[in-house]
């Protein structure tokens, strides 16, 4: 039987490392969803503000959110603890309250019987203030990744509601599409334009994240994995060059943004 080539062993080991990375990503996603609490609804008046908020409200952002919620509803639920104290979503809560004050019929359309979508965390902010802060930071940094089709669908609904893709300075009172889309999707104008033109988000953001994860996982393997087999020894010899190539790819991808 012909001896297996070093290249075949190397590629099989690299494939195994990649599969392990993907398994870890799937486990992390499931764990993150579980840690984000159970989905439920609460009447608006029963959601309690924290005694001390870490973020001051930006009223312009509140108004923008109110406009998007008026058209699309609440896309991302608020986060509360076991005592119904708000942990994350202060701007969304203020926008919902503003919608109730200014457009009660629209509020009722999206939130029948004042039922506000929430994620209920399995602890209280009073008992675990550090954990509450961690949830707030994580939720503020978290952004759902929309597909190009989803972004186009949101854009169409906004256009139907009177938003316009304005070039240059908008007229007074004119509803502008791109800022509204940016508020909803949580992405910058260039990224949204790519989505609207049908480019997969994996062509930029997801690829960039994957490259960084690949580099980190390979570095971890380099430090921890034993080298008691010929294949592992060969992989270790090739790793510095692979890590260098990954580093170059990450830098080039960042520069293209």
Automatic annotation (TrEMBL):
Domain (ParB-like N-terminal) ranges: 40-141
GO BP annotations, alphabetical order: chromosome segregation; positive regulation of sporulation resulting in formation of a cellular spore
SMART domains: ParB (SM00470)
Pfam family, one: ParB_N
Residues of the signal peptide: none
GO cellular component terms attached to this protein's record: chromosome
Name of protein: Putative transcriptional regulator
């Amino acid at each position: 039987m012909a001896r297996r080539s070093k290249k075949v062993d190397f590629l099989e080991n690299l494939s195994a490392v990649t599969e392990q990375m993907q398994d870890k990503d799937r486990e992390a996603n499931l764990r993150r969803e579980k840690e984000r609490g159970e989905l439920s609804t609460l009447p608006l008046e029963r959601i309690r503000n924290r005694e001390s908020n870490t973020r001051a409200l930006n009223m312009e952002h509140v108004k923008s959110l109110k406009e998007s919620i008026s058209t699309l509803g609440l896309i991302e639920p608020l986060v509360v603890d076991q005592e119904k104290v708000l942990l994350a979503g202060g701007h969304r809560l203020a926008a919902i309250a503003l919608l109730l004050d200014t457009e009660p019929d629209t509020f009722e359309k999206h939130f029948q019987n004042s039922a506000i979508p929430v994620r209920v965390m399995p602890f209280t902010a009073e008992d675990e203030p550090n954990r509450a802060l961690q949830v707030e930071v994580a939720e503020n940094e978290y952004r759902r990744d929309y597909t190009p089709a989803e972004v186009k669908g949101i854009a169409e609904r906004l256009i139907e509601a009177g938003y316009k893709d304005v070039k240059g300075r908008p007229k007074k009172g004119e509803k502008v599409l791109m800022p509204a889309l940016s508020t909803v999707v949580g992405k910058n104008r260039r990224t949204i334009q790519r989505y609207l033109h049908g480019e997969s988000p994996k062509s930029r953001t997801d690829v960039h994240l994957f490259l960084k994860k690949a580099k980190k996982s390979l570095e971890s393997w380099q430090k921890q994995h034993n080298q008691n087999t010929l294949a592992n020894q060969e992989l270790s010899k090739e790793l510095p060059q692979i890590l260098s190539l990954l580093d170059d790819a990450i830098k080039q991808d960042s520069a293209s943004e």
